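Exercise 7 asks you to align residues with tokens for two separate proteins.
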Amino acid sequence: MSPSPYWLRDNCPCAECRDPRSGQKLFRIGDLPDGLAVLESEEDADGLRVVWSDGHRSAYPADFLDAAGDDGDGRTEQGKRLWVAADFARGLPEAEWSAYLASTEERIAVLAAIRRSGFALLRGVPAVEGQVLDVARSFGYVRETNYGELFDVRVEPDPTNLAFTSTAIAPHTDNPYRDPVPTVQLLHCLHSEAVGGDSGLVDGFRAAALLREESPEDFAVLTRTPVPFVYRDRQTELRAERPLIDVDGRGRIREVRFNNRSIATLRGLTDRELDAFYAAYRRFAAITLRPELQLTFRLAPGDCVVFDNTRLLHARTAFEQEGRRHLQGCYADLDSLASQLAVLERRAAALDTLEQLFEGEGAGEYLGEAVTMAQHMLQAGALARAAGAPDHLVAAALLHDVGHFHGSGLKLMQGEDNRHSHTGADWLARWFGPAVTEPVRLHVAAKRYLCATEPGYRERLSEASEFTLQVQGGPMTGAEAERFAAHPGAQDAVAVRRWDEQAKDPAMETPPFARFRPILARLMG
């Protein structure tokens, strides 16, 4: 089936149609002409190319028309792991706080677990007051409410919420009386000496899916009946009217709001509708209490659980007031968590791409030198690092010759200027800022500059470097050298050029690409 012309044109990825940095469209749908049609199209391994009836040309990547695996914004049940307690018999999704901070891979694993399973546990978070805010800020922004930036979960003499007592609390979601509801909750344990007070989680999506399977009509009732949720104290009154189970336009479970303490009086329903609602409500509540759905664990000082408050119901057992039990909590939101995860994954994929180039094509000959292309670039990065250069110059030295990949270097050795400094800088600009890309762009010009202005520099060039100097324009003229020296990036480019010339030693120990990954990850934006 051919795709809709307007859909296809609306998604044209070219720079005329979309901002290359943000991906935002540069036209309005009404700007497209009436009767838009495809005049010509060609599809091969590289993708789909289209010529339109208004003369515009579009090129789509090979996987553009493949919608497999598309789970929308990632907030619905699709693509998630709906679980029961036994699924975690071998352990909870967890990580040490120190490893989470130090390792991009560990942070990706934690955030992906929250997105897929609804929660993760961080161990070894310093058990000091306010630390929970640092955990939230490690992936997003703190959601401030009437409780403040953070709240204390401990016994209080005049509690305004059952959470601030020692009684057991059944599975529930927090703040259903807000719209939008805080979508991520964090609970950090500071003290846990009391007998009892174990924490519990229930996968509300799994409970809702079971209700849909066992009683479709009850499920339908809970998705279409607006429920009033209310919270009030002396300073606050909050209201929101939402169904207990919210679904998207395709019927996929998207959100669960379940908190019997906060449901106000339902109005405006017939007796039959009220009977149907309470029958469905009671059935759903019974499902959430099934033992096989309840995952129970004890938080120790330093443990911080992070969970999806639109999906997971949390609970706690009663505890004795004599023992000290103190948690601190705060709220954040899934959009910032998902954003951080997407950026980290995008950066990891970019680093994988670069590493594959070094390990693959980089193993080939480097322009007639005695080292491979990868050895040359890795040596340049190592020399910059040994010289105490800042991260952006280490990265520029490491990546300065990426423009030679994909066979471009052969053109240079055949006497054709491949402008690899410019093509390399433009390619790297998708991930790095000018501090990295401009020394790459100017490193060829820096050689021409040094050959023109520094006595003895040209005589130290290798035979291959002397050959490429001639192809690239030879030493600069006096006017060219003056203009180059005035360029704000000239000094950095000269530094990269010097490491470039030194990095051709077959006897030099060459570090692996992995040693540079943390530096590159810090610089990606």
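Second protein for Exercise 7:
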Amino acid sequence: MFCKVDRVILLHKTSQFCNSSSPQIEYCFPNAIRRVSSYVERIRRGQNLKENVKLPVKCYENGNFILFSQKPRKVLVQKGIQMNKIKQFRLTREKYQVVSTMGVNVKENSVFLGLGSDSEPQFALEIPYDESLMDKFGNASARFLGVRKSLFLLSEAESSLTSQACSLLSWHKQKVHCPDCGNLLINIGCTGSKLCTSESCSSHKLNKRHYPPINPVGISIVSDELNTKVLLVRQPSHLPGMFTCIAGFLEVGESVEDNIRREVAEEVGLDVIKTEYVASQHWAFPASRLMLGYHATVKSADEKISLDAAELEDAAWFTPKQLRESLERVTALADKELSMLPGSEETSSFRWVPPKGALANKLICWWLDRFDS
């Protein structure tokens, strides 16, 4: 229930195709005091907003904006509460009244992320990497943090939101012209999708929406049949001492299960005898990806590893004790807010797994909870 609301009438279809018989959808903007709407209600209202060519002005005026800097891309965060002796960071959200004074065209450059739990519109906005702007928002509790690092320090929900924002901001800048005719695309629902209205595409019935692409990637935690050890690998590009799960893009014609079996065979020369789905995650680096996490089983940890030297630098079996020690070290690194860059003495003296925020970390924790609890 809403205590007080302002109302905006939205047309369900894009304006150029709308007619007087188009269904009308009402979106309510809350005033200061209200009860949170249900999940279904919030999702449906967010989808209705995405369906419109332009968002109503009140969406921006009542919205919360997550700020990102350009080149290098950083996100504005602030220190939150401390849980279990570990620092918890959270995204800083600014109001339209603040971001509209920064000399950036907010409506043209922001991307709509949906409605938050309080039903207020959420946006991501990139601002120039300008020292004066950085100083304006940075203070004792808030600062711009590298996006990759922020994913390991924020909550799972806010890491996911940050990843979504990065993918949409990149797509918004890169997807400018229609791939069929070269015409400029029109933003729909604040860059949730784009539309080509050229006569060429219309005459060939190609007048359709273009949506941000998602690239599926299979990632697996590999164990022996008795679940006594886990196989992890490292690429040359990984930070010193870091081992992670085997992963690779799905090829045309593959199921995820086929992908998992092929990647394990290619990278370490082992035959997967069983797969089980565990979890998924959106990942924005270096491009928008859907990570599909699996548990893959091979016959024995005694089987000889045949390393693909073109892809990997090393591969090794790890015991539950080694994995737990590594997870503890990762937590300590995040707590100290270290840079986690190559050459750091503290990260090169031991083998460690990807930090919280990465699906590989979740897969390792899942395996430990299930088979070594």
